[in-house]
Structures are given as structure tokens and as C-alpha cells.
Amino acid sequence: MKVLLGSLLVLLLGATAQQPVALTYTLNPAGSRLVWTGYAEAGSYAPSGTLRLAPGGTLVATSATDLRAARVLVDVRTLAHDNPTLQNHLRGADFFDVTHFPTALFELDRVAGGQAQGHLTLKGQTRAVQVPVTITPIGPDSLLLQGTMRLDRTQFGINYNSSSFFQNLGSYAIRNDFQLTFHLKAGR
User: Fold this and answer.
1) In sequence order, which residues have a C-beta less than 8 Å from that of residue 70 and are 6 or more positions away?
2) b vs e for 128-154, b when ≥16 Cβ sit within 10 Å of the residue's Cβ?
3) DSSP 91-130
4) 184 contacts 72 by C-beta, under 8 angstroms
5) Are 69 and 60 in contact (CB under 8 A)?
6) Going from the N-terminus, what domains does the chain have, and what CATH number goes with each?
7) Which of 4, 16, 120, 144 has the most crowded CB, counting CB atoms within 10 A?
8) Which of 117, 27, 115 is nearest to 72 (CA)?
9) pTM for the structure as a whole
């Protein structure tokens, strides 16, 4: 009986020792960069600008490239563009309504085949999204996540000048999809 209990204990301890240790990383808003680009429906007009992360974002990984969980908070009030009129319009109720929805949140479900799958909450609406992501270790205690995602703004209730909702917009039509390129730095 003692041999059986001893063997079970060794097996249990061995199984526990093989479990990867989860490491928590904190996202660095100052060291991270988010660049958005919108597109006119016709022509080549494609304004772009920046956004900043809000404090409090975290990543959980079992190795430098095995991301298991993430909570990425974006401060939508920081949406910036060189043209102040366009910047204020994008921050307003026609687009991101930053007064009522100051943050956006991405929560990771899993990463498989270079694709991060999770849920994005933007302007109070949550949708499943899939994002190509590259994870690069930077030294022993830091990670860099990079990628470019395309989002359909109308899925989040941003319908302004969308030809899917309004007719005869001509040169005022704005494509539904916009692009968000990210370089997120995180450290332990």
C-alpha cells in the first residue's frame, strides 16, 4: 500500500512539475503604438492617425511566444489626426463618441496559427474578431506583439457616410472597414 501511495505521489508531482508556468506581463502604453487608417469609398483619400493604450492592460503567457490571455485597453479619447476638425469629428457622436465610450477593450480567447481570436468591445458593442499577430521576445522579461487588423466599423454601430446605409453619397462615402496597426510592448 505504501509503495502504491508513493508511486501515485511521484506521478502527481511529476505531472504538476511539467505544467508550464504562466507569466503575467503588463502592457506599456508609452512604449506601444497604435496607428489607424480610414478609407474613402472612391479615390485614394486615406486619413490616418494614432491612438494610445490605456493603463491596466495585461498579457499572460506560458513562454515567450505562447500567449494564453490578454486584456488590451485602448483610450479612444486619444484618437489623433493632424487635422483638428477631422479629429474632433471622429471623436464625436457620428463616429467613436468618446464622451460616452472612452475606451475600447480587446480580450483574447486564444492564439492559433498566428491568429489571435477574441472579443472587441468598441462603442458599447462586443464582436468576435480575429487578428493576425506576431509575438517576439525582447530580452528575458519583455514581449512585443505586432499586427494589422481590419475592422468593419458598421459592426460597432458606426454608420456615418456608409454606402451600406445611405444612398447617393458620391465622394462623401466612407468605406466600412478601417485598419489598425499595432506594436504593443509588455514587460514583467
Assistant:
1) 57, 58, 59, 60, 106, 107, 108, 116, 118
2) ebebebebeeeeeebbebebebebebe
3) HSTTTT-TTT--EEEEEEEEEETTEEEEEEEETTEEEEEE
4) yes
5) yes
6) 23-187 (2.40.128.110)
7) 120
8) 27
9) 0.86
